[in-house]
Design brief:
This is Chitinase domain-containing protein 1. By secondary structure, this protein is of the alpha/beta class. It contains ten helices and 17 strands.
């Protein structure tokens, strides 16, 4: 009885947090998130020529069939503990996601030992809710942060397996350095292979999150060919193409396609590829090369404050952007639009890959109509 009361108390608290979050949004001038009978495609919102007022007017309306899965491939969505909207959206649109990856755990090197963090991030109330209402597979992300090769990889592997068994997880998304890039470590590759084999013996699955570099070099990804026989899916970070110095688009479509051709050359099965799509944007102050990341609410606030006369379509990258000045300093802002997202979905459909989204709590609510 005490356990039931505790669970009920957690559910009530979680519901109150969602209500409080919605109230705070409305106080900041945002529209209430509301379901509607027409999706964004029927409204004609997938267009190059779009005004800031069209975005602010429509962004908080989402199609009423929230569990409809429009994208035919597999979809992985990341959620983070620092952005509670992700928990809300993952429950509302759970039917759209084959996999949800809560970003909870970090294993880092401390002197010669291993430091395990993240147990306090585990949201048991959300876990119970999403497991109850859907068959979506929960795969928490484990970030392995190591700075040298003198680290207890066996201890890391055992820690991951123990936590998965204790929490009844069906697998994980693993992010670990030196898997790809200019300094590939065979020791790390062996670690991933052994962990995948241990998982498969327990009927669990292992996804690998892989950074994608702006300068695509085949030798930086040669390890993937060896890993593709044991890793169940690769979650490729096909974003962060630009930075504060080389500012510009976040994820040019030509770059994405060239990377997919590279993977095909390496004989990575398309069904194991999850193409990364960003739900965040960037705001670069050109005067001092300062880059700030934008999530949906920041973007709407910026549109309301700056009311840009024109939102431009970059035909090369197939992304929307606008410019403004603040204290005589020029800024350039890139943030996903419905059309830019649709272009990336179409690439995924052509190559017959899945999609991974970083991260769903950063979205504008009408994004989900596309998936």
């Amino acid at each position: 009885m005490k356990f039931f009361s505790f669970v009920l108390f957690q559910i009530i608290i979680f519901s109150l947090l969602i209500i409080e979050s919605e109230q705070r949004r409305q106080k900041k001038g945002f529209l209430k998130e509301t379901s509607v009978k027409e999706d964004v495609e029927k409204k004609g919102l997938l267009t190059k020529n779009i005004k800031h007022s069209t975005i602010t007017k429509n962004a908080f309306f989402y199609y009423e069939e929230t569990f409809r899965k429009k994208f035919t491939g597999e979809t992985l969505g990341y959620v983070t503990p620092w952005n509670s909207n992700g928990y809300t959206y993952s429950l509302r649109h759970a039917g759209k996601f084959n996999y949800i990856s809560p970003v909870w755990y970090t294993l880092s090197q401390k002197n010669s030992g291993v430091f395990f963090e993240g147990k306090e991030n585990v949201n048991q109330t959300w876990l119970k809710s999403i497991r109850k209402q859907t068959n979506t597979v929960i795969l928490p992300r484990f970030l392995i942060s190591i700075t040298s090769r003198n680290v207890e990889l066996t201890k890391i592997r055992n820690t991951i397996i123990d936590e998965c068994l204790n929490q009844n997880f069906q697998g994980i998304v693993l992010e670990i350095p030196l898997v790809t890039g200019p300094q590939i470590s065979n020791e790390i590759i062996d670690f991933v292979i052994k962990l995948a084999e241990d998982f498969h013996q327990r009927k669990m699955i292992l996804f690998l999150a892989v950074q994608v570099y702006p300068n695509l070099q085949e030798n930086h990804y040669s390890s993937l060919k060896r890993l593709s026989s044991v890793v169940d899916r690769f979650s490729f970070m096909t974003y962060d193409y630009s930075d504060s110095i080389n500012f510009g688009p976040i994820s040019p479509t030509s770059w994405i396609q060239n990377f997919l051709y590279l993977l095909n050359k390496l004989e990575i099965p398309n069904q194991k590829i999850l193409l990364g799509i960003n739900f965040y944007g960037t705001n670069v102050n050109i005067a001092n090369s300062k880059l700030d990341h934008l999530i949906g609410k920041d973007y709407i606030k910026l549109l309301q404050e700056k009311t840009p006369s024109q939102i431009n379509w970059d035909s090369k990258s197939e992304e929307h952007f606008f410019e403004y000045s603040d204290k005589n300093e020029k800024h350039i802002v890139y943030y996903p639009s419905l059309l830019s997202l649709q272009k990336r979905i179409e690439i995924s459909q052509v190559f017959k890959t899945g999609i991974s989204i970083w991260e769903i709590g950063q979205a504008l609510p009408y994004f989900f109509d596309l998936f």
